[in-house]
Design a protein that fits this description.
single chain; alpha/beta; D-Maltodextrin-Binding Protein, domain 2; 2 domains; two-stranded antiparallel sheet; 10 strands; 46% helix; signal; Bug_dom1
């Protein structure tokens, strides 16, 4: 037994020398985790994995994707807010997990000031869509339909406080029509009911509706954008139709725990933006109904401020508070 001690000391010495021989970057940074506040296999999860692969090559650093779903993104966001501010844990956040949660829920364990902005990545438009059998071909005709029938327009949402729920309130205000929110667990469930005559309007993303439009079962009246999407040239934008007040989108970005060193934030931000701006990632966005909207910390700060004014005022006006 005593003869093992010299061998152990030799092994320890060799291990230490081997570590010293490694390039500094190989052991100076621990693996980075991108936290996705949704389950595996979804759209954001797929985007995160492609992003992680590209950023890993740019940074020369191992990056893994961790799914922490639940509570409308609160679990994942809370985890990142508590994480060390060293650039090793980043949140793939967005309109719902961060802005809407903070604006709607006063008792959250985090706020806007719990994070440092890292990078804006992309955004997705909503639609104003009706079933073809409604016989409506435009937004003015939809308003006329509602008033003529003296009944609220039923629209599917993903629950109280979701982007689709709030957008219905925005339509009611700006078009001066009555709207009735009907919550669903999934977008397909809402579409099935609408096609079955149990709804008049849907605000799902274009990618969820294109096959239905090709089949002739729905009519996409407009995208909730400033300009037409080049990938969908036949669908007008709300702005060009004369409804700029109906512009809205949901965005995706990267956030770090508050206090992360600026030089670390910049390094991660530059890598993420470079990946999103590659043609392969842009193609992935187009194929999934998303639009590139890249920018550094300042761009994301500006988006958060826009959300405070845009969604925040709507939430305040309707006195919406969630637990």
């Amino acid at each position: 037994m005593f003869g093992l001690k010299p061998l152990a000391r030799i092994g320890s010495t060799l291990a230490a020398l081997a570590a010293l021989a490694l390039p500094l970057g190989a052991h100076a940074e621990k693996p980075m985790s991108i936290i996705v506040p949704y389950g595996a296999g979804g759209l954001n999860d797929n985007f995160a994995r492609v992003l992680a692969e590209g950023m890993s090559k740019e940074l020369g650093r191992t990056i893994i994707v961790e799914n922490k779903p639940g509570a409308n993104g609160i679990i994942g966001a809370s985890y990142v807010a508590r994480a060390p501010a060293d650039g090793s844990t980043i949140l793939l956040g967005g309109t719902g997990p961060l802005s809407l949660n903070v604006l709607l829920r006063p008792n959250l364990p985090f706020g806007f000031d719990s994070f440092d902005s890292v990078a804006m990545l992309f955004e997705g438009p909503l639609t104003i869509t009706v079933p073809t059998k409604l016989g409506v071909q435009s937004i003015p005709e939809l308003v006329e339909y509602s008033r003529k029938n003296n009944q609220p327009l039923r629209f599917g949402t993903l629950g109280p406080g979701s982007v689709t729920d709030l957008y219905g309130l925005l339509m009611a205000k700006e078009l001066d029509v009555k709207m009735l929110a009907v919550p669903y667990k999934t977008v397909p469930a809402a579409l099935i009911d609408m096609l079955g005559g149990l709804g008049e309007v849907n605000m799902a993303t274009p990618i969820a509706l294109l096959e239905h439009q090709k089949a002739g079962s729905v009519k996409i009246l407009a995208l909730t954008t400033e300009q037409r999407d080049p990938a969908l040239p036949d669908i007008p934008s709300v702005a060009e139709l004369g409804y700029p007040q109906l512009r809205a989108s949901y965005w995706t970005a990267l956030h770090a725990p508050k206090g992360t060193p600026p030089e670390v934030v910049k390094k991660i931000s530059d890598a993420a933006i470079k990946v999103v701006q590659t043609e392969s990632f842009r193609e992935l966005l187009r194929n999934n109904g998303q639009l590139e909207k890249t920018g550094g910390p300042d761009a994301l700060d500006a988006q958060l401020e826009t959300d405070r004014k845009y969604w925040g005022q709507l939430i305040k006006d309707n006195n919406i508070v969630l637990d």
